[in-house]
Amino acid sequence: MKGQLVQLLFGISLLSLAACTKKEDQPTVVEGTVMNKFTNQPVAGIPIVVIKESSAGHFSGVNRDSLTVAYTNAAGTYSHSFNASSGNNYYIKMNNSQTLHDLSYGWYGAKATAGSNNRIDFSVTPYKIVTVNINTNKRGKSNISFDFFSTVDTDNFGGFIFSDTVSSKQMIVFTRTIKVLPNRDYTFRKYTFNQVRTSNGNHIFQDYTYTQQTRRILYNDTTVINIR
Prior knowledge:
Elements: H1 2-24, E1 26-36, E2 47-55, E3 62-71, E4 77-84, E5 89-94, E6 100-102, E7 110-112, E8 117-119, E9 122-126, E10 128-137, E11 143-152, E12 155-164, E13 171-180, E14 184-197, E15 203-217, E16 224-227
Parallel strand pairs: 1-8, 1-9, 10-16
Antiparallel strand pairs: 1-4, 2-3, 2-5, 5-7, 6-9, 10-13, 11-12, 11-14, 14-15
Organism: Hymenobacter daecheongensis DSM 21074
Signal peptide: 1-18
Keywords: Signal
């Protein structure tokens, strides 16, 4: 009798395990193509990564772990097949941010539906290298700073170029290269201001002045920005 009970319990545990596995393992397929938006050509050799996003606890946000990677072929296509587990989110992300920018989904990636066949295409562009020549004067101010930005709908792109805080150094002459997204209007800004120490020892910034210029930077341009 005892042996029959053990066999019965063992059988129930196997059925429960099988049911749990069937519930949690969801075969998922993701396929797509990576295309250059401005040339309409496929892009080969691009790593496309599956990211699993899981909860890290009530106060810790989420964990994002790379599961697997597939590379686009000569036609720009890729394919992923994996088992998704319930309770997690899965994202498909282009993992080549040093040379290409994902215009479709940005740095976070596109969400895949677990247990389904997904079609996720990427529209990308190479970064364009722009030369920035600076030859200017602080005009008596202690600090100077340079940056740039572009706004297209909700897709903002920009960055810091250079700053100097040595008050005795008034002439600023240098050359930098920056990466931008092509076929956009960019605003290049120069700020001058004073850094002042207050009686309580804190530092404040005041006497701001700034100038700016806007340039459209195209895909095939050889672009040089001169700031004076």
